[in-house]
Structure formats: C-alpha cells, structure tokens
Amino acid sequence: MGLLVKGQWVDKWYDTKASKGEFVRSESKFRNWIYPDSEYQSNNSSHFPAQAGRYHLYVSLACPWAHRALVFIKLKQLEEIISISCVHPDMLENGWEFKQDDNFNDSNIDIGDPLHQFNFAYQLYTKAKPNYSGRVTVPILWDKKRQTIVSNESSEIIRIFNRAFDDMTGNTLDFYPESKANEIDLLNERIYNTLNNGVYKCGFATTQRAYEEALTPLFDTLNFLEERLTTRTYLLGKEQTEADWRLFTTLIRFDAVYFGHFKCNLKRILDYPNLNAYLKRLFDTPNIASTVNLQHIKRHYYYSHKTINPTQIVPLGPTKLFP
Ligand SMILES: N[C@@H](CCC(=O)N[C@@H](CS)C(=O)NCC(=O)O)C(=O)O
C-alpha cells in the first residue's frame, strides 16, 4: 500500500502518528461531473457530456466505496452505457493491481485494464495527471475521450449515475429526490462518520483510545438504525434512496470482515433482527446480489492489511452472506 508523490509511487502505510492514533481519510481529488445535454457547458473544463460508450468504471469488488458505484450501474441500468473492470483483491506494495489470477475470476466483471493494459491503478492517476500527489483509490470513473479521470469520489459518482444518462436508458428512478434531500443528507452524514468510515476508524486505529472513540458511536448508530427500521421498510420509508445503498455496502461486509478484522465486535448484523431483514431486502433487489463478491471482500481485507493481520491468514468463515 502506498501513494503517489509528484507522480512517483511510494510504498507507505497510513501515518496515524500526527493524529494521535486516529485514522484520517484524505479527500478525493478528481471531482468533475457528467451532465445531461440540457446542462452540459462545453467551455467548462469540469463538465463532461453524457455519452454512451465514453466512460469506463474501475472498481474493486472488495471495496465498499467502489461497490456503491457498481450498485448504481445496476439500479440505473447503465451496463450498456458504461464499461467496467476490476482490480485484483490484493492491495500490497504497489497498491491496486490489475494482475490476472484464475483464483479470483468473477463471473460478471473481468480483472484488468482493457483500455491501456496497465498493471497498476496508479498508472491511471499519472496518465490523468503526471505530477499527481495523493492516494490512489477506487472507484475511478475514466473518460476514454479526454483520457482522464472524471471522478474518484464514490458519493459523487452515484449522484452522476442517478440522473446523467436518464435520457439514454429511459430509467428515471430517482434515489435522491429533491423532496427528501435534506433528510437523506442528514442520515448520510451520521452513517458516513460513524459507520461507512467508522469501521475504518476502528480498524486502522493505532491507540486503544482512538479505537474506543470510534467503536461507541458506531454501535450507537447501529442501534439507532435498528430502531428506525421497526416502522420503515427502507431508511426514508417505503422507497429506496441513496442513503440505503450507501449503508448497504458497509452492512454487507460487516459480519464477514468488520466484526473480526476491524474489531467492530460488540454485535453482528445478524444479531439485529430489523437490520438483518433490511439488508436481505436490499440484497434481494433485482441485479444486486451479483455485485457482492464475498471472496474478494475477505481476501482483500485480511490479506492486504499486514499491519492488522501480519499472518495474512484469511478466515474460512463465514462462508455465506446470510447463514
Ligand atoms: N472517498 C473515496 C474513498 C475511496 C477509498 O478510500 N477506497 C479505498 C478502497 S476501500 C482505496 O482505494 N484505498 C487505497 C488507499 O487508501 O491507498 C470514495 O468514496 O470514493
């Protein structure tokens, strides 16, 4: 694991010394946007036009942030509009790699870089910006025409997918409707800080205090959500929204990796009747189950984080998502 410094790859683990043992996530740096024809401004360099076949999405099937983007490809029926490939689950001294490995073939998405045949994800970043400094993260939304990264921020990629290509697909499902935007934003904020990123704060903490300070709010939020779901099918009521899918990709990994590997182990999702039923409901949404790859998930976390699991032993259980 490492990062780019002025276009050069440096192998370095997260530095938590400056933050008293706390894991602090860095901001994503490519923040452009794809617009439908009616809103696209060709003289604005951060604007990209909605065009079929023009964009490629690089994901990791292990990563919860990349998983959000993949879920939106399915929900918004974008498979014919945006091509997709994935990285190998191991993220070691070279960061994310495109190496072929028959042990990790996914029946839906190929490992590799079909556009440039690069070996490493960092090469995409230096192609987009030769002197780039920063982390090399997935998801990466790539523009084949301008040969650059449109966005590497999952929360924005899903908002782009939510509407930019509606004219082409005819799929007008809206997971961030104006009337619910405030409530969605509020829930997202709590869930991001304490759960989506909270599991990482627990797992990557290097002091007891930092770990405990992340663990308490994490389970407060799970208890709050369990209560909320006693009267609701989805977080906002009867309809699915973006808030559900942002939560989904964390919950689906929880019992398999966050409970053990990241020490979020006061309770499993399986121990929460409402949350568990809700998770299954989301999982059973058409085309969603195919986006979940338990083998990539377990292998990535247990094998890549050598500071947490130096033996790199990948536990055999759980073998199923819903035992
Ligand atoms: N804010 C980003 C975070 C993405 C992210 O951190 N992805 C992880 C994989 S789970 C990654 O690529 N990490 C590599 C690194 O930090 O060097 C997003 O939501 O898209």
UniProtKB/TrEMBL annotation:
One of its GO terms (cellular component) is cytoplasm. Residues 177-304 form the GST C-terminal domain. One of its GO terms (molecular function) is glutathione transferase activity. Pfam families: GST_C_2 (PF13410), GST_N_2 (PF13409). The record marks Y258, Y301 as: Lowers pKa of active site Cys. Keywords: Transferase. InterPro entries: Glutathione-S-Trfase_C-like, Glutathione-S-Trfase_C_sf, Glutathione_S-Trfase, Glutathione_S-Trfase_N, GST_Omega-like_C, GST_Omega/GSH, Thioredoxin-like_sf. It comes from the Bacteria. The active site is at C63 (nucleophile), Y200 (proton donor/acceptor). Glutathione binds at W96, R135, V136, T137, V138, E153, S154. PANTHER family: GLUTATHIONE S-TRANSFERASE OMEGA-LIKE 1-RELATED (PTHR32419:SF6), GLUTATHIONYL-HYDROQUINONE REDUCTASE (PTHR32419). This is Putative glutathione S-transferase.
